[in-house]
Amino acid sequence: MSSDDEGREEYLFKIVVIGDSAVGKSNLLSRYARNEFSAHSKATIGVEFQTQSMEIEGKEVKAQIWDTAGQERFRAVTSAYYRGAVGALVVYDITRRTTFESVGRWLDELTIHSDTTVARMLVGNKCDLENIRAVSVEEGKALAEAQGLFFVETSALDSTNVKTAFEMVILDIYNNVSRKQL
Ligand code: GDP
Ligand code: MG
């Protein structure tokens, strides 16, 4: 925690977005941070993050949200990417079962690389593609419950639940931190 020029309390939290290649991580972030969506997947060059602010209990809470630069394609996300993260969105694509089956591996990686308690949200993305769904809502919910994660289905294309996915994580981190300070 720190204070801004007017002495208001400020928070800055690092959040990472992980999951298999092409599940929609970059589009979820661009939808949340800039309200943009791109139909063409383009590889991000270098590690990228976006900073988003929200106000909670009159305090400015900034989330520095990190996106992979395509390293996930080679299962080569480095420990630097995870370092200091206090929140994570673990994303799969509801139309590709293999991406759901990878969730356990991403959670393991997160545990190995993180040094603190991490607020975790399981995100089933592309829920606009109901006609080619390959993972049911119930399966997503069950996995989240078993692993102690929040769960939501999203669409970066039509914006469904995108704000909710990020803001629930930010709120949970804030609650953990403010509880510790009491
Ligand atoms: P990343 O590799 O996980 O960062 O995935 P991208 O954000 O680059 O998205 C991969 C592809 O899926 C792109 O062609 C996107 O346009 C598409 N995509 C991402 N999110 C959605 C979504 O919610 N619905 C649909 N229909 N397509 C999506
Ligand atoms: Mg990407």
Automatic annotation (TrEMBL):
This is Ras-related protein RABA5e isoform X1. Belongs to the small GTPase superfamily. Rab family. The lineage of its organism: Eukaryota, Viridiplantae, Streptophyta, Embryophyta, Tracheophyta.
